[in-house]
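Hi everyone,

Forwarding the result from last night's run.
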Amino acid sequence: MSTTLLRSSTARTTLRAFTPKSARLAGLSITRSKVTLPDLPYDYAALEPAISGQIMELHHSKHHQTYVTSYNTFSEQLAAATAKSDITAAIALQPMINFHGGGHVNHSLFWENLAPKGRGGGEPPKGALAAEIDKTYGGYAALKGVMEKALAGVQGSGWAWLVRDTVTGGVGVRTYANQDPVVGQFKPLLGIDAWEHAYYLQYQNRKVEYFKAIWDVVNWAAAEKRFEQSG
């Protein structure tokens, strides 16, 4: 399947109805309609040497926290604008809500996609998902090559995702710009962050090395569970 870059216009309606129910379905933590930073099921240094503890701490406690805080702030402003029937203000706020809400959704899924070695990290996919990968790409090694190529092709900031097509039932690799989340016809299975903040302190301009190293800590069990739930 060819890689498709989806621009921010495709995500304009993503979080307009981001209710506690929809958030629970995404595995996100909600307190009175506000999103919160999820705890990691592993220490910051647990993914070394693939991803340094310094990067993990900054990525989670600073970058992800910013998406959480900003989403909540802009959501409150949107509620106030809606209460005053200020349509112009509501429309102006929507891009920021989509961006920061997408950042929260993407990162919440991303942390689940990672695990230390010995706790699932780096183990190959299994079961029905592995069979679908074999059918589509001819094997796990080939899929990694496709995703690495897609990641290297991201211009600026974005993500590469292995997704499931809810119409065909098949899997494919798609790239998304900035913090656009996977929505609509496609369901996210496994995502890799191609933003510089995900790798630069450790890999600097050698991002291709990061794209290869991250497979050592990819948690396919999370992707397999999402695949089963998306059927």
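The helical segments are 20-25, 53-83, 87-112, 127-137, 140-152, 200-203, 207-213, 220-229.

Cheers,
N.
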